[in-house]
Design brief:
This is NADH-quinone oxidoreductase subunit I. The protein has 6 helices and 5 strands; from the N terminus they run ααβαββαββαα. The chain is of the alpha+beta class. A 3-stranded antiparallel sheet has the order 2-3-5. A two-stranded antiparallel ribbon has the order 1-4. The structure holds iron/sulfur cluster (2 copies).
């Protein structure tokens, strides 16, 4: 007994009758998806709508940096380079001691090595490093991915403000300290 064969097995050409259901099914799918909202963006014509906490680039607030080297020591990729020198600040009162402070000479991050883990930002005790969602800094020369302190400082403009505190959270310590009434010197009448 001979078994029925499909057109491709038998070598015969498909007829217009056998193609019609497939074409109709394809057209129905096209009509259905044509009206659906798209999930793609026509970048760079349309800028992506990124969440404010996106990890685009690291920004440096130079005034806050004390050159403590903590970020450079904790960076798993060793891609933070810091140079600083000590400066002596003369005593302001007679008999007082001179003080020393670190002056930042160089602070660079090599974004060709950085893996965007965020450890440097987490460990900085002085809030000198921040995430900026800015990501458009691709270069044709890999050496240009080494951002110096001026370039890292420039990214501060694109750092979004911190999210609002939960309405039932405690007042931040620094605001509570600033709102505290000043202490009266001892012995002075109130
Ligand atoms: S994000 Fe991670 S890898 Fe990049 S500089 Fe900071 S600590 Fe290093
Ligand atoms: S950025 Fe922060 S952790 Fe890094 S050297 Fe400056 S103060 Fe220290």
């Amino acid at each position: 007994m001979s078994t029925p064969q499909n057109p491709s097995q038998s070598g015969s050409k498909p007829t217009s009758k056998s193609l019609l259901p497939g074409i109709l099914k394809g057209l129905a799918t096209t009509a259905k998806t044509a009206t659906r909202k798209t999930h793609t963006h026509e970048y760079p014509d349309v800028a992506p709508d990124l969440p404010p906490r996106s990890r685009g680039v690291i920004a440096l607030m130079e005034e806050n940096c004390t050159s403590c080297m903590l970020c450079a020591r904790e960076c798993p990729d060793w891609c933070i380079y810091i140079d600083s020198h000590k400066e002596t600040i003369p005593a302001t009162t007679e008999g007082g001691r001179d003080r020393q402070r670190n002056v930042l000479d160089n602070f660079s991050i090599d974004f060709s090595l950085c893996m965007y883990c965020g450890i440097c930002i987490e460990v900085c005790p002085f809030d000198a490093l921040f995430w900026s969602p800015q990501f458009e800094y691709a270069e044709t020369d890999i050496r240009d991915l080494l951002h110096d302190k001026e370039r890292l400082g420039g990214w501060m403009e694109s750092v979004p403000p911190p999210p609002a505190l939960d309405e039932r959270s405690a007042e931040p310590a620094e605001i509570a300290a600033a709102n505290k009434p000043a202490r009266m010197p001892r012995g002075r009448p109130k």
